Amino acid sequence: MSGTFNEIVAVAAILFLLIYVSAYIALFVLRCKEPATPRPYRAFGYPITTIIALAGCVALWIAAIVEDRRSGLFAALLLIACAPLYAWIAHRRWRGETAIAKMAPPNPTGDDAR
How far apart are CA 96 and CA 87, in angstroms? Predict the structure, then answer.
């Protein structure tokens, strides 16, 4: 159903590039949304090196799709098909954690160490 080994590797390469792109974008988003959060790890040369790496990944991603449109289309369809499933699982997990938190007995000592 998925094709030859080379086709699978081509789709996986496009998906891996999307993982890197989303990680670099997430770095910018989280640092903008939560600027006061302690940083246990410093990104060397931030934001310049992150922008360079993001631009390189986007360029490779575009080149991969232009070179092999079939694999790019298959990767896009795979992501589109997985998005509702991920949203459903995330929603169920969020509802489950909320319900468990509501059922937990209150801590009489007032400290958060349970």
Answer: 14
